[in-house]
Amino acid sequence: MAQGRGSAMVTTVFLCTLMFVLHSEMAHAATYTVGDSGGWTFNVASWPKGKRFRAVFNYSPAAHNLVAVNKVGYNTCTTPRGSKVDKTGKDQIKLVKGQTFFICSIAGHCQSGMKVAVTAI
């Protein structure tokens, strides 16, 4: 198989898996009512405290990994020195307010589209 077609196939399989996982996780994710019983009203800025919002990445650890990077790393597909490389295949990442960028650091994977920017608000 040619290099380009192999990379395209890996990317396609990853994207299909990610879509399935995201759909499955959405069906099983906890649902919170903003402000709890008081609802959406004034003074709910502290409401998220103590609640965990996570992204779950499912993948084959024999084929991929997961690295949280900054925007430059995301745009250039580079992993900053000392970055934590997750490789369990079932990585649960706590999201923080703002954008978080993730890539697969296996050679050629990010460049073939195996990257995602997640915005938590």
UniProtKB/TrEMBL annotation:
PROSITE patterns: PHYTOCYANIN (PS51485). Gene3D superfamilies: Cupredoxins - blue copper proteins. It holds the Pfam family Cu_bind_like. Residues 1-29 form the signal peptide. Transmembrane segments: none annotated. It comes from the Eukaryota. GO terms for molecular function: electron transfer activity; metal ion binding. Keywords: Copper, Disulfide bond, Metal-binding, Signal. The keyword Signal applies. GO terms for cellular component: plasma membrane. This is Basic blue protein. It comes from Lithocarpus litseifolius.
